Amino acid sequence: MTNNVLVTISCGTDNPNRATRGLFLAAVAQKKGKNVTVFLLDDGVYLARQGAAETIRAATGDSADDSLAHLQAHNVPILVCTPCATSRFIEEKDLADSCRMATAAELIDVACDAACISL
Question: Where are the domains of the chain?
Fold first, then answer.
């Protein structure tokens, strides 16, 4: 069993429940001592914008921002699909702490050595 966990999130403000849940699960995995990587793609890239997660909540009341802050405080890499971000006019300078642009090749490299959760 691997100690690496990859959480991919393809939704953002369009589905606050799934977006929040993805960040929450990544935070839970980190708290359990797992090596976590988050990969944001499609509309999930909106979560990487500075301040964007502040208003996103799940129906349960969980806050995307709380989970994101936990991930950032623990230096969990948050990779942002470059073409997905570019097509949505998001640039590197727009990204929150711990977020950086990444490629599909990086996603595959991480996924091949991790338990994967996709939301």
Answer: 4-118
Between the two ends of the chain, the Cα-to-Cα distance in Å is 22
Question: Helical H runs in the chain?
Answer: 16-31, 64-73, 82-87, 104-111
CATH, domain range 4-118: 3.40.1260.10
Walking along the chain (119 residues) 10 residues at a time, the average pLDDT comes out as 93 94 97 98 96 93 95 97 97 94 97 95
pTM recorded for the entire structure: 0.95
- Take residue 91 and report the two structure tokens written for it: 């640039």
Percent of the chain at pLDDT > 70 equals 100
Helix (H) or strand (E) holding 6, with range, is strand 4-9
Radius of gyration of the chain (CA): 13
- Say if residues 80 and 100 touch (Cβ distance below 8 Å): yes
